[in-house]
Amino acid sequence: xxxxxxxxxxxxxxxxGGNRMxxxxxxxxxxxxxxxxxxxxxxxxxxxxxxxxxxxxxxxSELWRExxxxxxxxxxxxxxxxxxxxxxxxxxxxxVHPGNDYARKNENGAKGKEECWYILDCPQExxxxxxxxxxxxxxxxxxxxxxxxxxxxxxxPIKKGDFIQxxxxxxxxxxxxxxxLETQQNSNxxxxxxxxxxxxxxxxxxxxxxxGLEVMNVPESPIEGSIxxxxxxxxNRLNQLILTEHYQVWEVKVSGEFTFxxxxxxxxxxxxxxxxxxxxxxxRKGRHFILPWGFGxxxxxxxMQIIVSTV
Length: 311
Ligand code: ZN
Known about the structure:
The chain is built from six helices and 24 strands. By secondary structure, the chain is mainly beta. It folds into two domains: 5-229, Jelly Rolls; 239-310, Jelly Rolls. The strands form six sheets. Strands 1, 6, 19, 20, 21, 22, 23 and 24 form an eight-stranded antiparallel β-sheet that branches. A seven-stranded antiparallel β-sheet has the order 2-3-7-14-9-12-18, with no helix packed on it. Bound molecules: zinc ion. Residues 95, 97, 115, 172 line the site of zinc ion (ZN).
């Protein structure tokens, strides 16, 4: 049986970050403004190392290059998925990501970014910014230039356990006191549209309004197609949350015992609550790991919830 690849997270300090992950996930945080935990990443801006076992100390990008059989010999230049936990102590800037085609042409061959969010915790009455209300590019441009943000943005109410897909070209922002798990394409390409006039070390962060306008979807598609309420999903089943050309994501609530097998190149997992065992290996809230190719039958027991993804 192939061994689990446990990853050591990389933490990021941000203007909007906090220190909640210390208590919630028992992480050793590098600072009081920790906004992001990159739990599974081979991106050069935060390349996770393997925590234990045969490949201990190796970076995920190295494994991808040198031990491709672990990932079913997938023919892709880079490890395709990036998983983060986000602690928004304050709101994040309003932003948009380009798709692959635009990024390839305009950002030196970079990858676009599509992402999705699983809400781990949020205040009552929380709402995220997902999309806008403009009917045309002209109206979009006019409202942005006039700073009429409240007229422009679409606010979507959320609850713990909601799942939201953010397509490339969809304007979005995480709001204050929301904690979520993000599964995304392996890319760090963001066009910041509005930052509430905030300053970081005395300086306003750079905006990218021109490019943002170029890639933004107008009109935005209805939200119903992008949100899934997982609260009532059955236990001991892989509940599919999304399937796109870049990733597929499931949610599973283990209660007692759950066994499954999947014929996929690899599976990325993050335990988002509880604890238990996976084929006899102890796992708990906050652990990120990969089940490599040929892992076979997966037997989980305990009381825990896991977000699972692959390409
Ligand atoms: Zn984003």
